[in-house]
Write a structure and sequence with these properties.
11-stranded mixed sheet, globular, two-stranded antiparallel ribbon, alpha/beta, 33% helix, single chain
């Protein structure tokens, strides 16, 4: 190890920003469209309406889950999707369920963003990318294909591997619309969706693209997945007979998360590009912070260092002060340890300003969508910014944290010109992301 003899680690001076910093000169990134398929509804408008109303989409699992400790989940009613109206038989054969959901969400994002790729020139399509991830591949498909293999090699579908690849959502969306910009897939457990949005923002900010479809899809509610998370003691088991109240972030009686499924995709654009085409601007993506816990494969560090670093870095990247943030959409999954640690991290980041910061987690309504949680919840923050309404945390009977948790939908900030929020997402392996999202301001 002699080559390390003269190597010295020098601590970098903290970055400090002012009104004359490079923030004022870099490309601004705005959100102009949103699409979602959730347990609440098959579109954004109805999902958002039910979130604000404090409704829950969590229900009891079917007979195939018999004998498992957890008997609840937030599922998408398959008959309500009407896949044949949106996808061809060939598409359905080639795509995993998670990819199918992501493709549908991307279609809605384009529609609400009033952007039709068919009307773009070839040069414009080269500046239009896709950044869509997936946290877990379909374990049920792996199991069923293994059983088919026992019956003979030719029983294995030639589409088995392509259906499993997390990058295939990106591939199908780009091929469907002829998009030849950055094609980037993220798979960072439950932080996947937030990382996808942050990475897409950087592609635009750095000049690699002018437009990005970004988000994630997840669909792994099957007996094997539920059994695996049960063995980790991660899922709720105390509310099997009352599914609607099983997911209860920040409540004293929380006992684990409830698995959900779905997809959410946002249409991100460089500001001048959006202005030039008269696009509807919902919100602005100001900053992105990442960190690692370097602690444990499934548990966050007790001192909340990773979460704290991610939030501080998002604020720093946004070029704002912590006092300008007035809402945090928490990762809070309804686990006893995770919710407590995140609440302490929020207090550490904001200090004396904590009492002015409202906090909520919408997972009580739609469960934990794993790799598709950060992007769906970021979508709700975007609409909160656009409509000046804060989404509530539901199922709180006895608050178990020392932060201001929103339990009913309320007006956000009637006396403040700009609404600024953080959206947190944390994943197994200690991977963390925080996004800084704001209402659009000239």
């Amino acid at each position: 190890m002699s080559f390390l003899k003269n190597f010295k680690i020098v601590a970098a001076a903290p970055l400090r920003y002012s009104s004359t910093s490079t923030h004022s000169h870099r490309r601004r990134v705005v959100i102009t469209g949103s699409g979602a398929v959730t347990p609440l509804a098959n579109n954004v408008a109805d999902s958002w309406r039910r979130i604000l109303a404090g409704e829950s989409a969590i229900s009891k699992l079917g007979p195939e889950f018999k004998g498992l400790p957890c008997q609840v989940a937030a599922q998408i009613p398959k008959d309500s999707l009407q896949l044949d109206k949106h996808l061809s038989k060939s598409d359905i054969k080639l795509m995993s369920p998670a990819t199918q959901l992501a493709v549908l969400a991307a279609e809605e994002a384009l529609t609400t963003g009033r952007l039709n790729p068919k009307e773009l020139s070839e040069e414009q399509k080269e500046r239009f990318g896709v950044c869509v991830g997936m946290g877990m591949f379909d374990l049920a498909e792996v199991y069923s294909t293994w059983n088919q293999l026992q019956r003979g090699y030719n029983r294995v579908s030639p589409f088995f591997v392509p259906r499993l690849l997390p990058s295939m959502a990106c591939g199908h969306i780009s091929m469907r619309h002829g998009l030849r910009g950055p094609n980037h897939s993220v798979s960072t457990a439950c932080a996947t969706g937030a990382h996808a949005l942050g990475d897409a923002m950087r592609f635009i900010r750095n000049g690699d693209a002018d437009v990005m479809l970004a988000g994630s899809g997840e669909a792994c509610i099957d007996p094997l997945s539920i059994a695996g998370f049960c063995r980790l003691r991660a899922l709720s088991t105390a509310f099997n007979d009352s599914p609607g109240v099983a997911s209860r972030p920040f409540d004293k009686s929380r006992d684990g998360f409830v698995m959900g499924e779905g997809a959410a995709v946002l249409l991100l654009e460089e500001l001048e590009h959006a202005r030039a085409r008269g696009a509807p601007i919902l919100a602005e993506l100001l900053g992105y912070g990442l960190s690692g816990d370097a602690y444990h494969i499934t548990s966050p560090s007790e001192d909340g260092t990773g979460a704290t670093l991610a939030m501080k870095r998002a604020i720093q990247d946004a070029g704002i002060s912590a006092e300008e943030v007035t809402y945090v959409n928490a990762h809070a999954t309804s686990t006893p340890t995770g919710d407590r640690i995140e609440s302490h991290a929020i207090s550490r980041v904001f200090g004396d300003h904590t009492s002015n910061v409202r906090v909520s987690s919408t997972k009580g309504a739609h469960g934990h969508l794993l790799g598709s949680s950060g992007n769906l919840e970021a979508l709700f923050v975007v609409h909160a910014c656009a409509e000046n309404k804060l989404p509530p945390s539901i199922n709180i009977e006895q608050l178990d944290v020392d932060i201001d948790v929103v339990t009913k939908s309320v007006e956000w900030s009637p006396n403040q010109n700009r609404r600024i929020a953080l959206k947190n997402s944390f994943g197994f392996g200690g991977t963390n992301a925080s996004l800084c999202i704001a209402s659009y301001s000239e």
